[in-house]
User: Which sequence fits this backbone?
């Protein structure tokens, strides 16, 4: 029984490796053809098009959140 399972596992590993290699080749070919610097095309997706980068004062929000958490801890723990 263990021999059969081991053979099936070896076949699955080989298939996974072939699929992975094929996907890598296709991605490399598409990156070469398009000549883009972003091979996964995240910058071109609809989700990212209307997004804004964080402003230069984005760190202020983080500081305010941390201060609020500290204030809650001080209020709860006398």
Assistant:
């Amino acid at each position: 029984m263990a021999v059969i399972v081991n053979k099936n596992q070896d076949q699955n590993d080989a298939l996974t490796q072939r699929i992975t290699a094929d996907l890598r080749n296709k991605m490399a070919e598409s990156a070469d053809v398009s000549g883009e610097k972003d091979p996964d095309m995240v910058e071109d997706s609809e989700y990212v098009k209307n997004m804004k980068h964080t402003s230069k004062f984005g760190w202020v929000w983080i500081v305010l959140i941390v201060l609020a958490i500290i204030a809650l801890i001080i209020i709860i723990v006398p």
